[in-house]
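Can't paste images in this forum, so I'm doing it all in text. The chain is below; anyone willing to post the predicted structure tokens underneath?
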Amino acid sequence: MDLTYTPEQNAFRAEARSWLEASVPKEPLASFDTLEGFEAHREWEKKLHAGGFAMVPWPTEYGGRGADLLEWLIFEEEYYRAGAPGRVNQNGIFLLGPTIMEYGTPEQKARFLPKMASSEEVWAQGWSEPNAGSDMAAIQTTAIRDGDDYVINGQKTWASRGAYAHWLFGLFRTDPESSRHKGLTFVLVPMDTPGITVRPIEKINGKKAFAEVFFDDARVPVANRLGEEGAGWGVAMATAGFERGLMLRSPARFQSTAHRLVKLYRETVAAGGFVDSALRNRVTQCWIRAEAYALNTYQTVSRLLAGGKIGAEASLNKIFWSELDIEIHTVALALLESHGELLPSAPAAGNVGDWLEGYIFALAGPIYAGTNEIQRNIIAERILGLPRK
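Text version of the structure:
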């Protein structure tokens, strides 16, 4: 792997850095788990799109820049360096978008990808059900074909972005006599379809990050099916691969957080705070692990550009970044001591930052995108070749 950037890549980095420095909002946007913040983030996404940076590796005809994945990694580094807002449409652009690229018809690509890139349409993820969390093969919500429509009945829960999203993608059981991985179909569902009821789920901080979605004879065109009927499991596993392995959590996210941790450590020492050698070593290890994840991702991208694919090793990535995220925030709270228990809005918070909120969110990392227990089973069976019990 050659870690030397080409002149063209350096020029792209300079262009991205210049645009971001001039364009990133001077004040943080409200959380996109609020209606105000959701719309503010959509406006930011539209600005990104107008500047040619919405999804740099997508073809230009679909709202992208036509760049390769190495340039995407470079852009992500500059994006986090500039402190740019989080991507409200991450379910669409990072997960569903690449899936449509692989499985969609030309008509589906032309219909959905440009509006996804600009965040004119924001997507919710509709995997989980009350009795089907990490075990997606237990999905029971049905989509029974009736002429040119699927008639959907059932419930999805923990739908990310579901409170405000315009569309939902998910798995539905099109063969009610089937079980487990068979008989499932991947369908794209407009959230304003008659028969759909959305009930937001509030997080502990009162923000509406998720939703329950109820389907009562909701009719969705068969044309909204992605892939073949009954073959949805394979389509969904491709989406899960993007979620676990590359697009959703770029290494720049963790490099940026690790750099903030080092800065916090230096500030703590400069202020006379006590930091023992064990805690100092944990700070160092966090920085090293973030850099290692970045180098591994560059290696993966180099393999993809050479014609390779992401396979079961995506589960290794998912475990690594989710557990690293928790460790970085745990070490930060240890440096802050009791001060770290304060929210930024507390009168005595000072410059405590958002470490506590980041820690609370990081705790979900080993659960979403498939629990780490499930990922370890995948690694044992598909990478190590260990027998099932």
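The chain is about 45% helix and 15% strand. The longest helix spans residues 277-305.
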